[in-house]
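Bit of a strange request maybe. I'm writing a small parser for structure token strings and I need a real example to test against, not something I typed by hand. Could someone generate the tokens for this chain?
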Amino acid sequence: MAIHNPNDNSTYVVKYMNLMGRAGIIRAILHLAGATYTNEFIQLESVKDNRGAYPFGHVPVLVETRADGTTFELGEALAIEHYVAEKFGLLGSTPQEAALRKSVGFNIYLELYHHCFASSTPIKDAIADPTSEFMTNALPQFLQCHEKWLRNNGNNGYYFGDSISYPDLVLLNWVRLLTVLGLQIDENSPIKKLENTIKALPEWKGRYDDFSPVSMIDTGKEA
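Reply from user aminoacidic:
Good idea to test on real output. This should exercise your parser:
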């Protein structure tokens, strides 16, 4: 199933900082689906001063306004990702398909988050050190696992079937981040195949570079 817009006349506001960061996948899904959305840029200091204004005291937050004027507010980046992924057709068409796609996305996140954001060794230093635990153990295991998933789908640039799904965007986001930090992915790797396949999607409308996880947002553009 390709990404699609249900055309239910909902509009969206993404509340987050003026960079992609943890809202990057959310914004990418909305953009690729052709959804109508705007950004409300939030300063971290304002969050600290008014945590009660947000469902869990932090951002990102998604606010959906439905055609009848009612609103739906959702916090937590992963929950928002899953919601918009399901709404725009990126989680398959059955509970089992959705569970599989979420499981791959969760694994990518869980395997990489600690090394990138919670380790005592900065990830850039770990990547630069070929003897680091990340480069000798964690990364090879991660690559072996996810290259197997991609090969099992025919090494066609997608995790499932022949069209984009949620875990494709999750992997792409993390690969782009690690590449900025100095990691080089083998050009023959199925992971590189996925990156190039998703990059070539016409739904980016020439704005692929705008959705790098480290990109600041041009306030003159929709995203």
